[in-house]
Amino acid sequence: GLSFASKLELAYYKQLERMQLDGLVSFFLFQCPFHLEGGVRYVVDFVVFHADGQVEFIDTKGRDTPMSKMKRKQVESRYPVEIQIVSKV
């Protein structure tokens, strides 16, 4: 019952499922919002919790728009995270 915005996002989801089965990823979250000033939200595609304790914030993008870049910079300045862009799997 999940819906994906792109084939890239679906492919990355499937990759994370395989990594979870292999024990590399403990679990992952899908479509996690960050709230910004003025009621603006930036939704990151995945938050990945690796078995070694590392946490990654992943956004899958075929094309990174200026608006997306601006919002991402706002998120990274407000929250202690670095969002990684994945453009191919």
List keywords for this structure.
single chain, 89 residues, alpha+beta, 2 helices, globular
Fold blueprint:
Blueprint: H1 7-21, E1 25-35, E2 41-50, E3 55-60, H2 66-78, E4 83-86
What does this 3D model show about the protein?
The chain has 89 residues and is of the alpha+beta class. It has 2 helices and 4 strands; from the N terminus they run αβββαβ. It has helices at 7-21, 66-78; strands spanning 25-35, 41-50, 55-60, 83-86.
Number of DSSP helices?
2
End-to-end C-alpha gap:
22 Å
- Runs in which pLDDT lies below 50 for 5 or more consecutive residues are none
Order of H and E elements: HEEEHE
Quote the beta fraction. 25-35%
Largest beta-sheet characterization: 4 strands, mixed
Q: Could you estimate the helical fraction of the residues in percent?
A: 25-40%
CA-based gyration radius = 13 Å
Secondary structure category: alpha+beta
Biggest sheet: strand arrangement: 1-2-3-4
* Shape designation: globular
**Strand count:** 4
**Rounded mean pLDDT score:** 96
